[in-house]
Design a protein that fits this description.
Keywords: Glycosidase, Hydrolase. InterPro entries: B-gal_small/dom_5 (IPR004199), Bact_Beta-galactosidase (IPR050347), Beta-gal/glucu_dom_sf (IPR036156), Gal_mutarotase_sf_dom (IPR011013), Galactose-bd-like_sf (IPR008979), GH (IPR017853), GH-type_carb-bd (IPR014718), Glyco_hydro_2 (IPR006101). It catalyses: Hydrolysis of terminal non-reducing beta-D-galactose residues in beta-D-galactosides. 10% of the residues lie in helices and 36% in strands. It is mainly beta. Strands 47, 48, 49, 50, 52, 53, 55, 56, 57 and 60 form a ten-stranded antiparallel β-sheet that branches. The chain has a nine-stranded antiparallel β-sheet with strand order 42-43-44-45-46-51-59-58-54. The chain has an eight-stranded parallel β-sheet with strand order 29-28-27-26-25-32-31-30. β20 and β21 (281-286) form a beta hairpin. The protein is globular, with a radius of gyration of 31 Å. The termini are far apart. Bound molecules: 1-methylethyl 1-thio-beta-D-galactopyranoside. The site of 1-methylethyl 1-thio-beta-D-galactopyranoside (IPT) has 11 residues, from loops. Residues 85, 184, 419-420, 460-461, 496, 527, 560, 563, 968 line the site of 1-methylethyl 1-thio-beta-D-galactopyranoside.
C-alpha cells in the first residue's frame, strides 16, 4: 500500500511553476500569513483531524519555523532534531517511509484586507515546507505538494469572501521525497519559510524571464524580457520594458542594447528594469553579464575568473533552516569581508532573499537543486531514484522549479543538479530540462563522474597534487576516449574541498596557489560555511552548541555536523581568518630573494581603490611608515622591496618586520558601507632584522640543603625535577609529543590507512612518562638532567637533556637548553616536539599574555597566511579557540618572547633563542597556553565542559604537526608534516 505522502508524483492542485518576479518587485497586493498559527503534532499522517477543525485550543507555534525547534533552546515538546550525514534514519525501501511519521496539523485564519483589489486572482504561496504537505481552505482539500526548499502556489481565486477563512496545512516529517532530500544536516520539519497571499491582477506579469548579457568587446549590454500572464490564461502579455537609468525602452520580447557597466562579483552593478502592463508594474534588479566557457576556461564577461567559494547550508543555531533576512545579510557580509567571492548553495535552493543579496553585494553562485540520495550509496546505489524512470517526472519538476524561481539572478553563474545522488537516467533528463529553460548557464553535477552530461568537470576533496595535474590537463584518462576528450576540454571546479571541520582546514594555500597557476582551474568551494551546532541548554541551564547525539538520537553522525568556517554563533574561526588571508584579492607574499610579490587577483578591477601602506616595526613598536605608490591593473603583479633609504636598527629584543598591507582607501558606493576605509585587502611581510641572540648564561647553579638545586628563579629536587619556577609550584615539566587530537587527526586521510591520532596513541604519545637517567652539575656550572620519555608498550622514546643555567648579572633569570633525540621506530609523524610545563596558578584563565611572534590568532604549519609577525596580547581565556567539539587549538608560532602577567601582580617572561628541528633552524618557538590539560581538552565533548583546573599549562614547542583536512579529505601534506627528529631549543625564563 502506498499512501499519499509516499506517492512519486509531482505536486497536485498547484499553480504551474513560473518565472515569478522576486518578492517585492511588484506593487501588487500581498498579505503575509506568517506569525502565530495553531498546531498539533500527531504520531502518524493519518491524524484523524478534520480539515474544518479550527484548532482554537491547540498549541501556538510560529510560522515560519521548524516544529522540533519551537521551544528551543530549553524544551522539545514536538520531537527532537536529528542529525544524519549519509544514511537514512529509516529502512531503505523507497518510496515507503515508516508508519511512525510525525505529522503536524497547522491552522490559521485570515481575512482579506478591506482594500484587497477586486477581480484578478489570488494565490497562496508557500516558500518552503519540509517535507510533504496538504493544503485545505475552509475544510476543502485543494493541493498536495513537496520539494522542501521550493515554492508551491495554490490558486484560491473564487474561494475568498470578505469573511474569515480557515487555512489547514497537514505536514508530514517523512515522505517519499525524504529519499531525495538526504542532505548532510539536521532533519527538521514544518513550514519553515514564509506563507503569503498574493494578488494577481488581470493581465498581470506572472511570468517574467530576463535575458541580460554583456558583450565585453563592445561594452554593450543586451536585454530582453519575456512577459506572460500564466496564472489565468497562459500566454504572452503586452508589456513595456524600460531601463530609466539607460534611457532605453522596448516592448517585451524585443531586445534592447545600450552601453552598460557590467555585473560581476567584484563590481555588482545592478540596473532597475521596469516592466509594466496596464495592470501591473514590476521593477527588477538586473545585472548585465555573460558566462561562457572558451578553450576549457570559465569566463565571466570575457575574463577568466576564480571561484574562491564556500558551501553554504542555511543555518541558525536557534531557528535551524528558518533563517531570517538579518542572518542572510550577516552571512553575505561575513563572506565579503573574508574575501569569499562565491557560494554553492549546498544542497538546495536557498531562501530567495539570499540570492537577492548575492546579486546586490556581489557573490558568484552555483544554485543547487534540492536533491541528494546519498543513503543509497552504501547499498551500491540499488534503487536510487536518480536511476528510476518512475521518478523522472518528479525530479524534472524539482530542478525546473529551481530554475524558474531563480533565473533572474545575475549572481547565479551555474545550475547544479544536486549533490551525492549517484548517476542514472534522470541525470540527462534533468540536464535537458534545465538547458531547455536556460541555455545561458553551464550545468554542474559532481556525481556525473565522467562529465558526460554536464559542462564543467567537478570533483570533491581531490588533493592539491591531483588538482595540479588536472590544472595541467594531464590527469589520468577516462576509459572512453570520447568522454575523456570532452572532459579534458572542460574547466575544473572543486565543488567541495578543504573540509573545515574543527581546527582546520590545513593546506588551503596549496590549493589556492594551484588555482592561480592554471587557467583551467576555476577554483572551488570550501566545505563548509558554518558549524550547524544547535543551541540547547544542559541540566544546569548552561547553553551549548549541540551536535549529533546531543538530543538523545540513537542513530546519528555525531560531530560531523560541526565542520564550518564559522562557529555556530557565527564567530569566525581561525580557519575563516586563514581563508580571508589566502583568498585576499591583493595578495602580498614574501619571496625567497627578500622581496614581496604583490598580485592584483581581481579579474576586472585595478587596485586604485586600495592603498599599500607599509610599516617598519619591532614587535609593536613602529619605527617608520610609508605608502607605496602603486596601482596594478587587473591580473597583474609586481615586486616591491623596502625603500633603499630605510634605516634599519641594530638587532634588539624583538625581530624587525617590514609589513605591507593593502587597505581599502575609500568606502564603496553600497548603501550599507560594509567595506570601510582601512579594510584589509591583503597583507604580507619581510623579516628584516632578527633579534639579538640571548647572551650566554655563564652562571652556576647552587646546591640546596635538601640536596636539591637552584638556578635563578628555578628550584629542583635532588632528582633534577623542576619543583618551582617564578615562585610557583611546578606540577610537571617534560618533553611532550602529543596533542588533544583535532577532528582531522582523528580520521584517516580520505578514509585510507589509519588516523594520525591512532598512530600517536599506538606509539604511546598520549601516555608519555619521563624517567630520569642522571642529574649532574657540569664543569661550567649548569644543571644537566638526562631523561628518557616514552609511552607504554613501545620501544620508541625520546632521550632528553635539559641544561639549566643561571644567567650572570640576572638573578631572576634561568637559561634552559633542551635537546630531544628520538630513539627507536617512530610513526610517520608526531603531534609536537617540545616541552610541557604545568604551573600552579589558581587564576590561570585570567593570566595576561603579551607575545612577540606570529599572531594575533592561532596558526599551524599548513594554516599560516593569516598570522603576521608583531607583538600581540590576550588573556589565557581568550587565547583558546572554542571549537564546537574541543580539540587542539591556539598555537602561536614564531614566538621569540612572551610575558605572562599573573593575577597576583607577578610575572614570568619567556624568551626563545636558537631553535632547530632536524637540520632546519627557525625563529622562535610555538607557544600554547591553557587553563586545563590536554587530557581534559581531549575528554571534553563540548567547550562549556572545560573548567580551569588551577594550573597554567604551557607548551613550548619547537614544532607542531600541521592540521590538514583528513576529516573528509587529504591529510597533512609533506610540507607541513612533523616527523620525529632531533630538536634543540634554547629558552630563558625570567621572573618579573
Ligand atoms: C560530502 C557531501 O557532499 C557534503 O554534503 C558533506 O557531507 C561532506 O561530504 C562531509 O562533510 S560527500 C563525501 C562522501 C565526500
Amino acid at each position: 500500500m502506498t499512501t499519499a505522502h509516499e506517492s512519486v508524483t509531482p505536486p497536485d492542485g498547484v499553480v504551474a511553476p513560473r518565472f515569478r518576479p522576486p518578492a517585492g518587485a511588484s506593487g501588487s497586493a500581498t498579505l503575509s500569513l506568517d506569525g502565530e498559527w495553531r498546531f498539533r503534532l500527531f504520531p502518524h499522517p493519518d491524524t484523524g483531524v478534520d480539515r474544518a477543525e479550527r484548532g482554537d485550543d491547540w498549541d501556538r507555534l510560529t510560522v515560519p519555523g521548524h516544529w522540533q525547534l519551537a521551544k528551543a533552546p530549553h524544551a522539545w515538546p514536538y520531537g527532537v532534531p536529528a542529525y544524519n550525514n549519509v544514511l537514512y534514519p529509516f529502512p531503505v525501501d523507497p518510496p515507503h517511509v515508516p508508519d511512525d511519521n510525525p505529522t503536524g496539523e497547522y491552522r490559521t485564519t485570515f481575512r482579506l484586507p478591506a482594500d484587497w483589489p477586486e477581480g484578478g486572482r489570488t494565490l497562496l504561496r508557500f516558500e518552503g515546507v519540509d517535507s510533504w504537505f496538504q493544503v485545505a481552505l475552509d475544510g476543502e482539500p485543494l493541493a498536495t505538494s513537496h520539494g522542501s526548499r521550493l515554492p508551491t502556489e495554490v490558486d484560491l481565486t473564487g474561494r475568498l469572501t470578505d469573511g474569515e477563512h480557515l487555512l489547514a496545512v497537514r505536514v508530514t516529517q517523512w515522505s517519499a521525497m525524504s529519499y531525495v532530500e538526504d542532505q548532510d544536516q539536521w532533519w527538521l520539519s514544518g513550514i519553515f519559510r514564509s506563507v503569503t497571499l498574493e494578488h494577481r491582477p488581470d493581465g498581470a506579469l506572472d511570468d517574467v524571464r530576463v535575458h541580460a548579457g554583456y558583450d565585453h568587446t563592445t561594452g554593450v549590454g543586451t536585454l530582453r524580457v519575456d512577459a506572460a500572464t500564466v496564472v489565468a490564461t497562459a500566454g504572452a502579455v503586452p508589456a513595456r520594458v524600460t531601463v530609466p537609468e539607460l534611457g532605453v525602452e522596448a516592448a517585451a520580447g524585443e531586445e534592447l542594447r545600450a552601453p552598460v557597466e557590467p555585473w560581476s562579483a567584484e563590481q555588482p552593478r545592478l540596473y532597475d528594469v521596469v516592466v509594466s502592463t496596464d495592470t501591473e508594474t514590476v521593477t527588477l534588479s538586473v545585472g548585465f553579464r555573460t558566462v561562457s566557457i572558451e578553450d576549457g576556461v570559465f569566463l565571466v564577461n570575457g575574463r577568466p575568473i576564480k571561484l574562491r567559494g564556500v558551501n553554504r547550508h542555511e543555518f541558525d543555531p536557534l531557528r535551524g533552516r528558518a533563517v531570517t533576512p538579518e542572518r542572510m545579510l550577516e552571512d553575505v557580509l561575513l563572506m565579503k569581508r573574508h574575501h569569499i567571492n562565491a557560494v554553492r548553495t549546498s544542497h538546495y535552493p536557498p531562501h530567495p532573499h539570499f540570492l537577492d543579496l548575492c546579486d546586490r553585494y556581489g557573490l558568484y553562485v552555483i544554485d543547487e537543486n534540492d536533491l541528494e540520495t546519498h543513503g543509497f550509496q552504501p547499498g551500491g546505489w540499488v534503487g536510487n531514484p536518480v536511476d528510476d524512470p518512475a521518478w523522472t517526472e518528479v525530479l524534472v519538476d524539482r530542478v525546473t522549479r529551481t530554475v524558474r524561481r531563480d533565473a533572474h539572478h545575475a549572481s547565479i553563474i551555474m545550475w547544479s543538479l544536486g549533490n551525492e545522488a549517484g548517476g542514472g537516467c534522470n541525470i540527462p533528463a534533468m540536464v535537458d530540462a534545465v538547458r531547455a529553460l536556460d541555455p545561458s548557464r553551464p550545468v554542474h553535477y559532481e556525481g556525473d563522474f565522467s562529465s558526460d552530461h554536464v559542462d564543467v568537470y567537478s570533483r570533491m576533496y581531490a588533493d592539491s597534487e591531483e588538482v595540479e595535474l588536472i590544472g595541467q590537463g594531464i590527469e589520468p584518462p577516462l576509459e572512453r576516449a570520447d568522454a575523456d576528450a570532452r572532459r579534458r576540454a572542460m574547466p575544473f571546479v572543486l565543488c567541495e574541498y578543504a573540509h573545515a571541520m574543527g581546527n582546520g582546514p590545513g593546506g588551503l594555500a596549496d590549493y589556492d596557489a594551484a588555482f592561480d597557476r592554471h587557467p583551467r582551474l576555476l577554483g572551488g568551494f570550501i566545505w563548509e560555511w558554518i558549524d550547524h551546532g544547535l543551541t540547547r541548554t544542559d541540566a544546569d541551564g548552561n547553553p551549548f552548541s549541540a551536535y549529533g547525539g546531543d538530543f538523545g538520537e540513537r542513530f546519528h553522525d555525531g560531530t560531523f555536523i560541526a565542520d564550518g568556517l564559522l562557529l555556530p554563533d557565527r564567530t569566525p574561526s581561525p580557519g575563516l581568518l586563514e581563508t580571508a588571508a589566502v583568498f585576499a584579492p591583493v595578495r602580498i607574499d614574501a619571496q625567497a630573494d627578500g622581496t614581496l610579490l604583490v598580485r592584483n587577483r581581481y579579474a576586472f578591477r585595478d587596485t586604485s581603490h586600495a592603498e599599500l601602506r607599509w610599516t617598519l616595526h619591532r614587535g609593536a613598536e613602529e619605527l617608520a611608515t610609508g605608502v607605496l605608490d602603486l596601482v596594478l591593473e587587473a591580473g597583474t603583479e609586481t615586486v616591491v622591496r623596502p625603500p633603499s633609504d630605510l634605516v634599519l636598527p641594530e638587532p634588539g629584543d624583538a625581530p624587525v618586520w617590514w609589513t605591507v598591507r593593502a587597505v581599502q582607501a575609500k568606502a564603496e558606493a553600497l548603501e550599507e558601507a560594509w567595506l570601510e576605509p582601512g579594510f584589509q585587502l591583503g597583507a604580507g611581510q619581510l623579516l628584516l632584522v632578527e633579534p639579538a641572540s640571548l647572551p650566554a648564561p655563564a652562571g652556576r647553579v647552587s646546591t640546596e640543603a635538601d640536596g636539591g638545586f637552584r638556578a635563578g628563579p628555578a628550584r629542583f629536587d635532588r632528582r633534577g625535577d623542576l619543583r618551582t619556577l617564578a615562585g610557583r609550584a611546578v606540577h610537571g615539566f617534560r618533553v611532550d609529543a602529543w596533542r588533544a587530537p583535532t577532528d582531522n587527526d582523528r580520521r584517516p586521510a580520505r578514509w585510507r590507512g589509519s588516523a594520525d591520532a591512532e598512530k600517536w596513541s599506538s606509539a604511546g604519545l598520549n601516555l608519555l612518562a619521563e624517567r630520569k637517567d642522571g642529574v649532574a652539575v657540569t664543569a661550567d656550572g649548569a644543571l644537566a638532567v638526562e631523561a628518557r620519555i616514552a609511552g607504554p608498550a613501545t620501544r620508541a622514546g625520546f632521550a632528553a637533556r635539559y641544561r639549566w643555567q643561571p644567567v650572570t648579572d640576572a638573578p631572576d633569570a634561568v637559561d634552559l637548553v633542551v635537546d630531544i633525540r628520538p630513539e627507536g621506530r617512530w610513526p610517520d609523524n608526531v603531534a609536537r616536539l617540545g616541552v610541557l610545563l604545568a604551573l600552579d596558578e589558581p587564576a590561570a584563565a585570567e593570566t595576561g599574555v603579551r607575545w612577540t611572534g606570529l599572531g594575533p590568532d592561532e596558526s599551524y604549519a599548513d594554516s599560516r597566511k593569516a598570522a603576521l609577525g608583531g607583538s600581540w596580547q590576550h588573556t589565557v581565556a581568550d587565547w583558546q579557540t572554542r571549537y564546537t567539539h574541543p580539540q587542539e587549538n591556539g598555537a602561536r608560532r614564531g614566538v621569540t618572547s612572551a610575558v605572562l602577567s599573573f593575577a597576583d601582580g607577578t610575572g614570568l617572561r619567556i624568551d626563545a633563542g636558537e631553535v632547530t628541528v632536524g637540520a632546519r633552524s627557525q625563529l622562535g618557538i610555538e607557544l600554547s597556553l591553557r587553563p586545563w590539560s590536554d587530557e581534559a581538552l581531549d575528554r571534553a565533548a563540548h567547550p562549556h565542559e572545560l573548567v580551569p583546573d588551577g594550573r597554567l599549562w604551557l607548551h613550548l614547542d619547537a614544532a607542531q604537526h600541521g592540521v590538514g583536512s583528513a576529516a573528509c579529505g587529504p591529510g597533512v601534506l609533506p610540507n607541513a608534516q612533523l616527523h620525529a627528529a632531533p630538536v634543540r631549543m634554547r629558552l630563558r625564563f625570567t621572573t618579573l
